[in-house]
Amino acid sequence: MTTTAQSVRPLTARSAILSLLLGAHPPEAPGSSIVGWGRALGVTEPAVRVALTRMVAAGDLERTDSVYRLSPRLLRRQERQDAAIEQRTSPWNGEWHAAVVTSVGAGASVRADLRQRMVGSRFGELREGFWMRPANLDWAPDAAVAASLEVLTVRPARPAPELAALLFDLPGWAATAHDLAASLAASEHLAERIAIAAAVVRHLVADPLLPDALLPADWPGPELRRTYGAFREELVASVSR
Fold it and tell me: Which residue, 5, 208, 220, 235, could crosslink 177 as a Cys pair with Cβ 3.0–4.6 Å?
């Protein structure tokens, strides 16, 4: 594997279970199927059984009789994962969303939560507390942070490509995307490919989804989505078998 692929998280019993349920619609499976899935990935039955018990206790999974399903919290993660693959953009008319943090004296945990939400909404921070992105996504601030933000629609005087380059590390994102796509295509081991695919999803969540006019030539975002989509179809077929 390449340097980026080597840095992906190894496939544990917990991550093997999540790879199955996060990719399933509906996201549930009998315990026997989960054990068989783990065995196919080289995870022993005792390790899978222990992981299931711990995940139920931690609130990751819910169990009814012998069927395990994702908890509401992880259902939201599945929704974000699906959205990362299927995100739709709108035609861009040159306007930008600007969100200015107006709350004063917020604690560190509140500030960290707001930052996480803005990054998750694919905004870049121009300077501390001033977030921007092109208005090509259907976006509104989360109810939890709306009172802390002043939201504006603006047309900056700075050239749009220059502003995008300040807000987002486009060369870095593209280099990692090319690396992950090549690693996923080159690997022949299912467990390794699942671990790489999980890193692909995390990377797609960080795609700024800029208008085409602001992207470098040969932007790898669409191709990485197609590569992951093909792998997910392969994974579904593998689970069926």
Answer: 220
